[in-house]
Design a protein that fits this description.
heterotrimer; A alpha/beta; B alpha/beta; C mainly alpha; B: alpha/beta; 6-stranded mixed sheet; 4-stranded antiparallel sheet; 11 helices; 41% helix; 22% strand; C: mainly alpha; two-stranded antiparallel ribbon; 10 helices; binds adenosine-5'-triphosphate; binds adenosine-5'-diphosphate; binds magnesium ion
Chain lengths: 281, 277, 258
């Protein structure tokens, strides 16, 4: 059986207006349907720009110089509009504070916003809203004004608004930066479940331990270039990771210092389970 | 005299919907982390310490002065607060002006203020951006600018609300260095964070909030050894501590370094033992 | 800081349930009629009275007071300036401290005040008793583009948005030692340097918000649905017709008259 490619990026180059440096430089890769891809890299590497290129904000919103091709769910981004792309791909931005539409007065209606725009049937709409409210622990706040939430609650709302739309591809740009530990664990679990159901996930994260545990593949980006795109074990075992401003999961760091490797694969542990196995004396 | 005294404080944003209930603690110089679930009241608590909000019940004393008897502006000489959302804090069109705003307001001369601002920018390694417009910078840089604009005021109490948001490992290391620097300069550093590894590495004391109530208050080691209580508050210990727990170590380790040295000495012991047999 | 970006007050009177279109028509009438029908001032005053009664009935009158307070500052200055200096001033009315006020100027200022208050109160009626999303929804249902609805509703929200922006920037300033509490003078001193940053960050926020709307399909082609699909009640329809016909008649009367 041939697996469907939901994201195909070919030789993508992009420069923001009034800048001289390429923010994205010759990036090519493809992602299978239902795959969970993590993106790592230091600040200003180009992670958010790549996310914006997938949903069409680059180049439709920002303009600038654009080359190459991005195809999402069979649609070429360049030939479509951002509004139309919303049927295929959703994005959770890095800063939740600017993601509230301000057109709605309650958390409940805020989640409905995207669904209304897509013309979803009302019965289905209510079902999905209830589902994501529950999924993200927002049920008690459903009648609250979105601007009266704590930072983490706002971030949960931003995620809920996109998950409810259930697009083919969901892009999340550092979506758990303000969540409490169990909250971010729950988001990773929920996202993993979505990917098992066939939704393609692209997630930028600084929490390497979580990416190592949940992502199928990890992409390393540095200075606008894609350095590597591989399994978490292989990518985090790279000895030159620090050169790109990325620290591997803490388990990998200590294993590197203590030179503890899996003998059969020659790779370092990246998750707590692997670490437990290799560190038992 | 304590730097901070919180006495039986309760607070509500709207009538009788209390988001903090009967909180009491005192703080001396040193490092304190405040952790807790989303919405547990951490940001509200530090806004009370800063005098931006006033308690509905109970009192907050900063160096013995009741925040109800003074203004947030007067407290600015003593307490600096870095906001959770940098967009709420930054309002000048030039980075240097932003960082100089605080020092100028608390009575420093222009030269003094500039010197302090430049030093603060150097600490966050953003000296070369001093002439830029903060609105053109990325979220991670804006967060560092908001930190610098508090450091430049050189207050005895410094509060960070989730300082590691949007930071990569370089930025996180920077923040850790800043916390250590302030502590060694004899200041009280209060930090809200969800990054337990950061707490384990940098903080002596940990206060845990749960649904507006004070759940735990103790040394980092004490707090993180109570895995069950933490889990009930939607928290977890640092990854290293979890690993030690899973490996059934008796001791609680909070940082990778302490784990490494423990493991190395044990490995050697085991090897010599194996060699003997 | 409360950052509620809306002036809407949920008091559950019939005004809140009224179709936004009816309220828009009311605004239109209250702007046009005092121009179209002759005893301008009487018509204007009548509308002011009606608006006040409605606002009281809708339990939102309290919210109008700050708005009125602010506009009184402007209105008083209009009265003074026109009363003293209007070109066509001929007949002295009274003299204070050697300054002579003239009838023509005062009368003109009085007319102006009536118009401003009339429009202000009619808009207040809409803003205070309508959810922003209901307004968009009502317009979209009548075939207007949602973009127009959003622009209109955000124009109406400019004041609360600016107020919340002022709130958070003021927090940022007093946290860093600028006194913003205290007497009027202190507050005024703190307020002036706020204007630049508030405009700046409002603009930026608008830009980022536009992105947030776009990626959630705001301009997607195709039919939209609505979470709360409010049907127009009989009362809505009757009122819409009555106000519409009233508008039409007054326009016709005015044309025939001339
Ligand atoms: N302006 C406000 N108006 C009304 N309620 C608010 C407001 N700000 C916060 N709250 C509520 O008060 C409670 C505590 O909020 P607070 O911001 O202190 O939480 P927090 O512990 O800082 O959370 P987080 O980790 O998500 O930042 C939450 O339930 C929140 O929804
Ligand atoms: N709106 C913008 N205008 C101009 N340059 C930008 C803009 N956003 C990002 N950049 C630049 O693009 C590069 C990549 O940034 P970004 O994608 O935000 O990185 P990351 O998300 O990995 O931190 C950086 O050099 C940054 O300065
Ligand atoms: Mg980014
Ligand atoms: Mg908070």
């Amino acid at each position: 059986m041939v697996v469907k490619k939901t994201i195909v990026v070919e030789n993508l180059k992009y420069r923001y207006p009034n800048t001289s440096k390429l923010a994205l430089d010759s990036i090519s890769f493809s992602v299978d349907e239902g795959q969970f891809v993590g993106i790592v890299g230091k600040n200003l590497a180009g992670k958010s720009t790549l996310c914006e290129a997938l949903v069409g904000l680059v180049p439709h919103f920002y303009k600038g110089a654009y080359g190459g091709k991005v195809v999402v769910d069979g649609v070429e981004v360049l030939n479509s509009s951002i509004g139309e792309m919303a049927r295929h791909i959703g994005i959770v931005f890095q800063n939740p504070f600017t993601q509230i539409t301000a057109a709605k007065l309650t958390v409940y209606e805020e989640i409905a916003f995207g669904l209304e725009n897509l013309g979803m049937d009302r019965v289905e709409m209510v079902k999905r809203i209830d589902y994501v409210l529950d999924l993200l622990g927002l049920y008690d706040f459903k009648d609250r004004n979105p601007f009266e939430l704590s930072g983490g609650q706002m971030q949960r709302l931003a995620i809920a608004g996109i998950i409810a739309m259930k697009p083919t591809v969901i892009v999340l740009d550092e979506p758990t930066s303000q969540l409490d530990p169990q909250g971010s664990e729950e988001v990773f679990k929920a996202v993993q479940r979505l990917s098992k159901e066939g939704v393609t996930i692209v997630m930028v994260e600084q929490k390497m331990e979580k990416i190592a545990q949940y992502a199928d593949k990890v992409m390393l980006i540095s200075e606008g270039k894609m350095i590597d795109f591989d399994s978490p074990q292989k990518l985090f075992s790279r000895e030159d990771l620090e050169n790109f401003g990325v620290e591997p999961p803490v388990f990998t760091t200590i294993a590197k210092k203590l030179n503890v490797k899996d003998e059969t694969t020659g790779l370092y542990p990246v998750t707590i389970d692997e670490a437990r196995r290799l560190f038992s004396l | 005299m304590n730097l901070v005294d919180v006495k039986n404080v309760s607070f509500a944003y709207s009538e009788n919907n209390f988001v903090l209930q009967n909180i009491s603690f005192s703080l001396q110089k040193g490092s304190v982390a405040i952790i807790g679930q989303n919405g547990s009241g951490k940001t509200t608590l530090v806004k009370l310490l800063k005098g931006l909000l006033k308690p509905k019940v109970g009192d907050v004393f900063i160096k013995g002065i009741n925040t109800k008897d003074t203004t947030a502006a007067k407290l600015a000489k003593t307490v600096g607060l870095v906001f959770q959302n940098p967009n709420d804090q930054i309002f000048k069109n030039k980075v240097l002006d932003e960082v100089m705003f605080g020092p100028l307001n608390i009575g420093q001369s222009v030269d003094e203020a500039r010197e302090n601002a430049l030093r603060a920018l150097e600490i966050v390694s953003l000296t070369e951006k001093s002439q830029e417009n903060p609105y053109d910078l990325s979220l991670s840089e804006r967060k560092l600018i908001s930190i610098a604009s508090i450091l430049s005021m050189n207050t005895d109490i410094v509060i960070f609300d989730e300082p590691t948001i949007a930071q990569d490992c370089w930025g996180k290391t920077r923040v850790k260095d800043i916390v250590r620097l302030l502590v060694s300069a004899g200041k009280l550093v209060i930090t809200i964070t969800h990054d337990m590894d950061f707490v384990g590495e940098c903080f002596e004391r940990v206060i845990v909030l749960n649904k507006g109530k004070l759940l735990l208050d103790g040394s980092a080691k004490d707090v993180f050894s109570q895995e069950d209580v933490l889990s009930a508050a939607y928290l977890e210990p640092p990854y290293i501590t979890q690993l030690c727990h899973q490996l059934h170590y008796d001791e609680v380790f909070l940082s990778p370094e302490s784990f490494i040295s423990y493991y190395e000495s044990h490995r050697q012991k085991k090897e010599t033992n194996d060699a003997k047999h | 800081m409360a950052r509620a970006l809306s002036l809407y007050v949920e008091t559950n009177t019939f005004l809140q349930k009224l179709d936004p279109m009816v309220k828009l028509l009311y605004i239109l009438l209250s702007i046009l009629l005092p121009f179209l029908i002759l005893p301008y001032r009487v018509v204007g005053l009548t509308f002011i009275l009606i608006s006040c009664l409605l606002l009281l009935y809708g339990k939102v009158f309290k919210k109008v007071l700050p708005l009125l307070g602010f506009s009184f500052l402007i209105l008083i200055s209009i009265v003074i300036i026109q009363g003293l200096f209007m070109q066509s001033n001929r007949t002295p009315a009274f003299t204070i401290d050697g300054l002579t006020f003239y009838k023509e100027g005062l009368l003109y200022a009085w007319t102006l005040c009536i118009r401003v208050l009339d429009v202000l109160l009619a808009f207040a009626l809409l803003v205070l008793t309508t959810r922003p999303s209901d307004l968009i929804q009502s317009l979209v249902k009548r075939g207007l583009s949602p973009r127009f609805g959003y622009v209109l509703s955000s124009a109406l929200q400019i004041i609360p948005q600016m107020m919340s922006e002022v709130g958070s920037i003021m927090d940022a300033q007093r946290s860093r030692g600028l006194e913003t509490e205290g007497n009027l003078w202190t507050r005024l001193k703190a307020f002036v340097p706020l204007i630049g940053p508030v405009v700046m960050s409002s603009l930026l926020e608008t830009r980022e918000r536009a992105m947030a709307l776009e990626v959630r399909g705001f301009s997607a082609i195709g039919k939209k649905t609505f979470l709360f699909d409010t049907e127009m009640t009989l009362l809505d329809k009757i009122l819409e017709w009555v106000l519409g016909i009233l508008l039409l008649i007054s326009i016709i009367v005015r044309i025939v008259w001339l």
